Amino acid sequence: MKKKVLSVLLAAVMAMSLAACGSSGGGNSTDGSDDSSTGGGQYDGVELTYWSMWSNTEPQGKVLQEAVNAWMEETGANVTIEWKGRDIKNILASALESEEQIDLFEDGYERITSTYVKYVADLTAMAEEAGYADQSFAVFNDWATEQAGFLPCITEQPQVGGVFYNQDIFDDAGVDAPATWTEFLEVCQTLKDAGYAPMALDSTYAPFFFGYHLARYIGQDATSELAKSGGWSSNPLVAQAAQDMIDFVKAGYLVDGAPDEYPASQNKMALGDPQAAMVVCANYVTSEVNKTAGEELNWGLFNYPSVEGAADGVDQTAAYTGCNSIAITNYSENQQAAFDLALFITSGEYDQQMADTAGQIPADPSNTAPASQTGTVEALNAAQSSLVWNMGLNANADLTSSIQEVVVQLYEGQFATGEDFAAALDALY
Questions:
Q1: Backbone phi, then psi, for 11, in 5-degree steps?
Q2: Residues 407, 284 within the same domain
Q3: How does pLDDT run across 288-318, given as a tens digit for each residue?
Q4: How much is the average pLDDT of 163-184?
Q5: Which residues does 422 contact at the CB level (< 8 Å), separation at least 6?
Q6: What is the C-alpha to C-alpha distance for residues 242 and 244, in angstroms, rounded to an integer?
Q7: What's the CA gap between 387 and 378, in Å, rounded?
Q8: What's the CATH code of the domain at 399?
Q9: Mean pLDDT, to the nearest integer, of 379-392?
């Protein structure tokens, strides 16, 4: 009897000891918040290091920290967030090459699928198991998979480009969103006649505007090849695209001062006299202009207009789509836990909070876009193919800034003809 009682007591002591060990916490995120786990969760004892492109004072960083804290509480894992900010792109490659302790990191998906692709895990199987396709935009997954050969990242902050406009101005002028370049020019003239400046344009975004237009004529791949090797004058559609812009400027469709220094021109959508009605940019411009206006403008979005006489096979419905994404290192010892954390951040409650707080498109299409992002979810769901930033004009890193200078000169009215513009680009090579 005494032996039996002693065995029971020893078992009880061991159970209490194990419980005490399981409830001990550890690790802190770099903002000093309490990351201690409650124990007993799915990932009790798992340690993850997360490199973020945000700061812990930005809206995105604050929501990210809340999401991570909630996930740790739910799973028992321990996550250390290292706030790298925008400098992450300058230090990440060397850190990954040396296999520094990183389980997850954030960056643009263009760099993840190129610069970092050999360091990231293949998420295809985990994504299929989790039903990730039902809580994400296909256009991002398809493009990233095509570039990398596998699914390399989880979308965190989607972007879409097109023509963003003030719906109240359109209503006042009695115009609707156009689909073709001819219709677009008619809308511009009607807006001008109604006392509005049709288009805002900062020099920073001049290549984005022209790149979109040129890609409608010759496609992104052909634009990239010209940027790399020259020969702009040999393709008459380059001159045609430039001539369209020369005529656009001469017609007085740019707001006064354009192309301005960023953000002076886009601010004229809020404070201009006359007020600008449209801007060709990515969706974050709406939040920037709202901040300047001190109120929410009534935003609308339409895809960049199609043109007549385009080269055969050019997809004139393609849209710029970009995103900041979360990738997992292929040397992480806890890839499944890291994947689950990434999905927790980019879906459900905290994805909705991120969209509302930061004024951005939700990563999960089932969530609701804020008013400033009206039409963006529909645009992403409708996008059949993706365009990269500046649609190929950035393909030659050595000449990117020089090409931008020539494009800015185009909007400044420095070229008499489209052929002169093409010749100026060829002179760079």
A1: -60, -40
A2: yes
A3: 999 999 999 999 999 999 999 999 999 999 9
A4: 98
A5: 232, 233, 235, 238, 239, 242
A6: 5
A7: 17
A8: 3.40.190.10
A9: 90
Looking only at the bridges linking them, the beta strands covering 154-166 and 299-302 are antiparallel
5-to-2, 9, 15, 16, 17 alpha-carbon distances in Å: 5, 6, 16, 17, 19
Q: Is residue 194 part of a domain?
A: yes
Residues 6+ apart with CB under 8 A from 364: 135, 136, 346, 347, 348, 351, 352
List 82's β-bridge partners, or say none.
51
Query: Reduced to 3 states, what is the DSSP secondary structure of residue 287?
Result: helix
- Torsional class of 265: left (φ above 0), alpha (ψ -120 to 50), beta (otherwise): alpha
Tell me if 22 is assigned to some domain.
Answer: no
pLDDT tens sequence across 277-286: 999 999 999 9
Confidence at residue 87, expressed as pLDDT on a 0 to 100 scale: 87
314 lies in the same domain as 418: yes
Report the amino acid identity of residue 297: L
Same domain as 71, residue 119 = yes
Q: What is d(CA 42, CA 426) in angstroms, rounded to the nearest whole number?
A: 60
Pick the range with the lowest mean pLDDT from 29-33, 84-88, 234-238, 391-395: 29-33
- One-letter amino acid identity for 138? A
Q: How far apart are CA 145 and CA 150, in angstroms?
A: 5
Name the token pair of 221.
């791949």
Distance of CA 173 to the CA centre of its chain: 32
DSSP string, 16-83: HHHHHHHT----B-TT--B----SSSTTTT-EEEEEESS-TTSHHHHHHHHHHHHHHHHH--EEEEEE
244: domain range?
161-320+384-426
Whether 27 and 78 have beta carbons less than 8 Å apart is answered as: yes
Q: Which one of 364, 380, 396 terminates a domain?
A: 380
